[in-house]
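User: Before I run my own analysis I want an independent prediction to cross-check against. Here's the chain; please return only the structure tokens and, at the end, one sentence I can use as a sanity check.
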Amino acid sequence: MTEYDEEFLTYVYFKGKGIYMKRIKAFIVENKLFSLFFLGMAVYYAVSMFAIKPWYDELYTYYSFISRGPVYAAIHWPVPNNHVFYSVLSAFLDYLGNPYIGLRGVSFLMSCANMLLLYQFAKKFLNRFFSAGVVFLYVAVWQVNNLSVQGRGYTLAATCYLLALLSLFKICKEQARRRDYILYALSLTGGLYTLVSSTFWVIPVCITGGITLLFTKKYKTLWKLIAASVVAAGLTILLYAVIWLAIGSNLMSKDPSGIYYGIYQVKIILKTPFEALRTGMEYMLATPYIQGDERSYIVKELFHYLTGVFNLFYAGFGAALVVILAIGGALAVVSACFSRKKDETSWFFHVYLAVSTVMVPVMLVIQSVQPYYRVFSFLAVPVSLMLVWLLKLLVERVFRFSEGEMVIAGKYCCLLLLGFAVFELCGSSYHSQYAERETEIADIFRGHTENLQTCFPVDDYQKYVLKFYYDREPAEVTVTDAQCILIPKEIYDETKEIPQWPTLYGYGAVDTVYIKDHFTQVNESEHYELYIRKE
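Assistant: Structure tokens:
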């Protein structure tokens, strides 16, 4: 490379850097209120990431997958409650050496990204004030806040959802390049690879794009969209096939009655890949995370179930939200009929709102399932958009403002929604601890870490806490070999309530008489007693 080439590349680099800085500065100036709110929430999430202690599911994820590296996380699936893609990404962050960043760093980054992505998506259809209001409502959702920095995959799945929507909008407007189709396919894949239950938003997204393109007679683009969706399905199957191979070969090598008993897993995969694939797939399908029920029961309880879902959005407003969304969905259908030939942007928006409102209850009935409420945290996106759209319609119809006056009205509505968001976020439930027993274990070990490597783990809580807080993975020792043991008081104290979940005491009966004779109690808390072996 010549000196001239180096000077040219340096010029291009700094010029490009200057352009991006100017764009960022212009964005902040134009969107002051949103930018200040974004900065405040980023600080809020950063503080929450360290201030709120991780609970059982997070610690299990860290112990079983994240701390073991990205390759291990990508090929192991012992239970349906494993969010594979999240664990893989987090395993890379864990190399930074801080367990909080390793466990929750991805969720923190995605929570910040989701505010920006939702704002950009809303601005396609609403002015900047109403769009900021959408973000305020979204952030104020309790379920969104609760999962914002948890070491789980729900926030990452929401990011994939928003990326898919932004890509789909460009595709339906026929403004998409090849990279937009790639991003669309990868977003669907990422969502499903994180959570299988992402089908509850993947299918509505695909239907939204299909209806939009079909009724606007953009058949060529429709075929491209279908092709991208098929690619996403293929990639998802391929990623899960790796897990199926690992599971299947592991089960076959551990089956005493099989011909592959004791054979190394790689050899099994190379010798009989389809058998390993089938075995792994059957195992995964035989252990569903979401249990089904009779369809008649699902239909009967649908309103009550959806009320429960939305009560975790804004406390006490669950039933009202169900009714409002039903009305909004009907209005979106009517608006779509009137806007199809007038405005493609409005047509896409109305179709999206209508499909998003209708498809979740339809899918619940078709599949005859009632998933955990947190599965539907992604609904905070269409719900916040729907509520602000209805507010905008109400203001337009009641006051009949001009376009210029609607900007001013949007500003006042935005401030009103900001006040509501701040009020909700100040509620005690939004920043309360949810890991009492886990934190108690971490505290009682503090100051007695020298013998933790030979600690007898009475329950899984202890194993996970030791790994996360002290980077100690206790050896599988017996009570007679242990130097340290932590006893839950409910083992011998009938007045103490035995936790119903998760299952404890999986390592055999604890001989409390032997422990009293050979160990010295060095610490005590509400539920535990810590013993160190006598000299």
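Sanity check: The beta strands are 455-456, 484-488, 519-524, 528-533.
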